[in-house]
Structures are given as structure tokens and as C-alpha cells.
Specification:
Layout (H helix, E strand, L loop, with lengths): L12 H8 L4 H21 L3 H30 L8 H28 L8 H16 L6 H5 L6 H4 L13 H4 L7 H20 L5 H18 L3 H9 L3 H16 L3 H12 L5 H14 L3 H22 L1 H10 L16 H8 L3 H22 L5 H18 L9 H12 L22
Helix pairs in contact: 2-3, 3-4, 4-10, 4-11, 9-12, 10-20, 12-13, 12-14, 12-19, 13-14, 13-15, 14-15, 14-19, 15-16, 17-18, 18-19, 19-20
Length: 442
């Protein structure tokens, strides 16, 4: 009696099955339809005026994209081989949808704000622009604790700049003019677009037409997760400071996947000079570089750029720097962060007698667990590095006592981006178990 060994399914097979159904168009349709519903609910129920304004406009863009995706599905079924249902057409719909649900609302709100509307930008836009003004005038984007304490109580929160110094660069255009194009969100969008274009260019290079098609399909899904997904489109249109950070991190992972560790370090280092959320990604990429015998090349940019960005503010006013980038994020500032999303860390902090301590202990335990994993099994591929970043940041966001729902855009994008880094033709092993690899010292 003969027996056959059952085929072992690769991890994530169920997601790949959903992702590739009907050539990817089924998930496209589901994404656009669900996003339209999200935008409609946001327009009807949000308590934030910029969010309501975004929802009212974005719902039309998502509905239009859903109709186009449905048309592509029908063409694929009844006219197989039609170029209107192919991969280039899917890319076109994605780009048009991003323009409709993120860029158009962004420009519209910026124009309305320049015309006098005071409810067309989230607080982080004002904070970044004020930090740009201070950077131009004093050499540091930060106010010291005494200056913040002197502000009226309802303005003290906006006196804090809980970002790294380079974020103030996006606020510099506002120093020169109040025109709509000087809105910090416009420059967030420009930075995001440039970084994503470079990432796509890096990943879509291939000598084989078949490999290129598979590459672009996976990259497209990753780009959708970082652009048209409502959590990203809404953030860019109304606030936006997280998007260039995310895009630079995705660029760093793409450069790592294509065997350019030095450039990957520079990209994630620039992201780290903007916001602390990039620092865990930098740490993972440095460990990846050590495993690939290129740790120093990654670390020069990944660690050097954030350090260089901090130096001028450290020299000008170290007390102000510490108050904004250390004390405030740790909850030790004059006012507390308004981030109160009902994730487990927040619920534990509120519900238990020593809840904040319990939540902090769980967060530390998760960090230790990830650190042990990195030491015992350092990532060999950029795909694995992206997965570690995604799951690690997801755990951190869920367990932090003070966090925002919008921060989920980071883990979602990293997890989706991992598939784009695991493609034939990319010059590195596709799995951690592969004995083959590229020597990055060449």
C-alpha cells in the first residue's frame, strides 16, 4: 500500500489565496467597497471637523474605484485577456483613487484653511508649522518647560513638539507665506510620494517579464496598504506627519531587499530623524545588516542621521529637547497626551488598580520577547525584517497606555509590504531557511 506525504502549506497561504483571487481584483473590490463604507461612517459620525470633511469627499472617490474594480472583474470574466483588467489597469485605478481620497481632500482642506477656515487641519499640522517657525528663528524647534508653562492652559498642549528635530523642516514653507501650498500636509504628501516612488522603482526591477508581473502585483498590494487604505488616506489628508515616516521605512526595507544596505540605513535614518516610530525599524535593520555582514554600513545612516539631527537642538537648548522628546512622550510633561484609543493597554490602565504599571509591564515583556527573538534568530531577509517590525509595532501600539488608532497604519503597512519583498528576482534568499544569499559586501 503506497502512501504519499501531504504537502506542507507555506505560512500565510490563506492570505495569498485571498490576495490573488480573480487576479487580485476581488480583494481590490472588497478594499474599495469597505473603504467607502468607512468614509461614509466617518462623514456621518466623526466629532473632528477635518475628518468629517474628508469622509464626505473620500466616499465618492472610493465608490468610483469600487465601480471601476467591479467593471474590471466583469471584463476578466467575460473578456479574458483584456488589458483593462490587467495589472497596469489595477495600478492606474490605485493611483487615481489615492489622488481622489487623499491628495484632493488634502489640497481642498489646505485651500479652505488658507481662505480662513480654522477647522481644516488637525493639531499636528499646527504643531509642525510652529516648530518650523521656531527652528528658523531660534535654531531649535522646541519650547522649554518655562515657556510652555507661560502659555494659557488651553494652549500648553500645542506648545509641545513630540517629534524629532527634522520634522520641523516640513513646517518651514509656512514661515515664508500663508498660501495653501505652504501647508505642512502638502509637503508631507510630496515627501511620501517621492519615497514611495523610489521604493516601487527599487522593487519592480527584474530581468524576467514573469518575475516583473509577480513583483508588481505584490508591490501594488503593499502600496495600496500605504496609500488608499482609509487609515492612511485620512491621516495624510487631515494630519499627515506619519506618512513620510512610513514611506521612508518602506523605502529602507525595499533597499535592503535589493542588496543596498548603506542606502537602506540612510532611508531609515532620515525617518528616525523625523519621528521615534522609525527607531525600532532602524534597530531591526541594523540587526539584519549584522547578519548580512553589513551592519556598519546600515548603522552609519540608521543611527548617524537621527544623532546628527538632535545635535543642534542639544546645543541650543538641551532642557527644551528633553522636555519635548523625552518627558512628554513618557507622560511626565506639564500636560498629558490626548491619545486615548481603547486598546488593551489603555483599558488595562483604566480598569485595574495598578493598571498603568500592569500595562507597562506587559509592554516591557513584549519588547523583551521581541529582543530575544532578534538575538536568537536575527532576520536574514528584508521580508522577515518587515514582519518583525509589523508584529512588534502592533504589540507595542496595543499595549501602550496612551496611543492612537491611527498608529495602526505602521504595522498594517509593514505586514502588507513583507510580501512585496519575497519575490523571485529580488537578490536575496526568499526564506530564512534558504542557504543561498547575496554577499552585501560586494
Amino acid at each position: 500500500m503506497s502512501t504519499t506525504t501531504p504537502t506542507r502549506r507555506r505560512p500565510g497561504w490563506w492570505w495569498r489565496r485571498i490576495d490573488t483571487a480573480a487576479g487580485g481584483l476581488a480583494l481590490d473590490l472588497g478594499l474599495y467597497a469597505a473603504s467607502a463604507a468607512f468614509a461614509a461612517v466617518t462623514a456621518a459620525t466623526s466629532t473632528l471637523p477635518p475628518h468629517r470633511a474628508w469622509g464626505g469627499l473620500a466616499v465618492l472617490g472610493y465608490l468610483g474605484a469600487a465601480i471601476m474594480a467591479l467593471g474590471q472583474l466583469l471584463l476578466r470574466r467575460y473578456r479574458p485577456g483584456s488589458p483593462l483588467a490587467g495589472l497596469p489597469a489595477r495600478w492606474l485605478v490605485t493611483v487615481l483613487n489615492w489622488a481622489a481620497v487623499a491628495l484632493l481632500p488634502l489640497v481642498w482642506q489646505s485651500v479652505q484653511r488658507a481662505a480662513g477656515r480654522t477647522d481644516r487641519a488637525q493639531e499636528e499640522v499646527l504643531v509642525v508649522e510652529e516648530s518650523g517657525q521656531r527652528l528658523a528663528e531660534t535654531g531649535t524647534p522646541y519650547l522649554g518647560p518655562d515657556a510652555i508653562a507661560a502659555l494659557p492652559p488651553d494652549e500648553q498642549l500645542l506648545g509641545y513638539t513630540p517629534y524629532q528635530p527634522a520634522m520641523a523642516l516640513f513646517g518651514l514653507p509656512r514661515v515664508a507665506t500663508d498660501a495653501w501650498w505652504s501647508d505642512a500636509r502638502v509637503w508631507f504628501a510630496i515627501g511620501t510620494t517621492l519615497a514611495l516612488l523610489l521604493a516601487v522603482r527599487a522593487l519592480c526591477r527584474s530581468d524576467s517579464a514573469a518575475e516583473t508581473a509577480g513583483n508588481q502585483a505584490a508591490v501594488l498590494r503593499g502600496v495600496q496598504a500605504a496609500t488608499v487604505l482609509p487609515i492612511c488616506a485620512l491621516t495624510l489628508a487631515t494630519g499627515g506627519d506619519d506618512l513620510p515616516v512610513l514611506a521612508l521605512c518602506l523605502l529602507a526595507l525595499a533597499l535592503a531587499a535589493t542588496g543596498r544596505p548603506g542606502s537602506a540605513g540612510l532611508a531609515v535614518g532620515f525617518a528616525g530623524a523625523l519621528k521615534l516610530f522609525a527607531w525600532p525599524v532602524a534597530a531591526v535593520l541594523v540587526i539584519w545588516g549584522v547578519r548580512r555582514r553589513a551592519g556598519l554600513r546600515v548603522a552609519v545612516g540608521a543611527l548617524g542621521l537621527p544623532a546628527a539631527a538632535l545635535l543642534p537642538s542639544l546645543v541650543v537648548d538641551r532642557t527644551a529637547l528633553a522636555e519635548n522628546v523625552l518627558r512628554f512622550p513618557l507622560g511626565l510633561g506639564l500636560v498629558s497626551s490626548p491619545a486615548q484609543s481603547p486598546f488593551p493597554g489603555r483599558l488595562i490602565a483604566d480598569a485595574l488598580p495598578a493598571g498603568r504599571g500592569v500595562a507597562a509591564a506587559l509592554l516591557v515583556a513584549a519588547a523583551v520577547g521581541i529582543a530575544v527573538r532578534l538575538v536568537r534568530r536575527p532576520p536574514r531577509t528584508a521580508r522577515t525584517a518587515s514582519l518583525v517590525c509589523g508584529y512588534g509595532l502592533l504589540a507595542a501600539i496595543l499595549l501602550m497606555p496612551s496611543t492612537r488608532f491611527g498608529y495602526l497604519l505602521y504595522p498594517v503597512a509593514f505586514l502588507a509590504w513583507a510580501a512585496a519583498l519575497d519575490i523571485a528576482g529580488i537578490r536575496q534568499p526568499a526564506t530564512e531557511d534558504s542557504p543561498q544569499g547575496v554577499d552585501l559586501r560586494t
